[in-house]
Amino acid sequence: MSAPAIPVRSDAPALAMFLTLLAGATCIGFSGVFVRLADVGPAAAGFWRMMFALPVLAAWTAMERRRPAAAGAGRGGHIAIALAGLTFGIDVVLYNASLAHTTLANASLLGNLAPVGVVLGGWLLLGDRPSRRILGALVLAVAGAALLVLPKFNGSAARGGLFGDGLAFGAAMSYAAYILAVGRARAHADAGRVSLISSLICAAFCLVAALGLGEQMMPGSLQGWLAVIALGLVSHALGQGLITLSLGSYGAGAASLVMVWPALVSVLAAWAIFGEQPTPVQAFGGVAILAAVLLVRKG
Question: Is 160 strand, coil or helix?
């Protein structure tokens, strides 16, 4: 079936905002590397990620409040922000846990299938019908991700375990819900406020999960501390912050498509740091993802 002809958004973001979105996605692409290098449990890693990002987000929120036109959240905004914090907490815990049961490439690629959930969820639940270009970019992005993942399923069970892959897919669906919630929250509040409050809720969720699962909370080495600090400052404060900022100009469906970019970043990082060399099929999948990103920029 062909998609209905939907006009392209007339308020398409400028190049600077697109680059902001892409920079945030690149920072997030290294989150799996930092989690691998941290010597704490998956939920604990999520907790430290939030804690080290909070001072930066608090400073950002304080700067926003100085503006005369600073936006308050309101009741609807607070509900959306709370949902964003909860769904992001679920995403972080599931994604971090998947890294212990599958490859970084598998976890990142499956975990970045959020565009499927965002576009379908936005269409079915919010009535946000995507344009033909966005649907075409979605198909291309998912096809590229499939090409990247497919060779992994031909390896050993340890490298392509269904359990780890299932956790990563669950993380993708949780992140899709997060993107939808943030998109709604940004209609009521400034980016810094959304990031700060949702991160506080996410930190509380991760702390309860870590304590409930009996995980190791404190890093036991300098490498572990540096990893969780980078997770908080680079992947969250900078990465998620830039994405939240850009969502004020991009629709959630279009922005989520660019979020397949971290998958490619993760594959390259896994190759350089952990020796997980991509196959020619995976390389072709990466090209497909880049093409999908260009389609989003034009859309």
Answer: strand
What's this model's pTM, rounded to 2 decimal places? 0.78
| Pair of tokens at residue 79 | 């509900």
Assess whether pLDDT exceeds 80 at residue 34: yes
**C-beta of residue 105 within 8 angstroms of C-beta of residue 276:** yes
Tokens of 19: 């680059």
> Which residues lie below 8 Å from residue 134, measured CB to CB, with a gap of 6+?
119, 253, 254, 257, 295, 296, 299
User: Mean pLDDT across the stretch 251-255?
Assistant: 64
Looking at the predicted structure, is the pLDDT value of residue 230 above 60?
yes
Distance between CA 190 and CA 239 in Å, rounded?
17
How many alpha carbons lie under 13 Å from residue 17 in its C-beta half-sphere? 16
What is the maximal distance between C-alpha atoms in the chain? 58
* Cα–Cα dist 219/212, whole Å: 18
Of the candidates 264, 254, 106, which has an alpha carbon nearest to the alpha carbon of residue 171?
A: 106
163-166 long-range contacts, CB within 8 A, separation 24+: 163/101, 164/98, 164/99, 164/100, 164/101, 164/102, 164/106, 164/107, 165/98, 165/102, 165/106, 165/107, 165/110
CA distance 293 to 258: 6
pLDDT digits 0-9 by tens, 232-241: 999 988 887 7
How crowded is residue 1: how many other Cβ atoms within 10 Å of its Cβ? 3
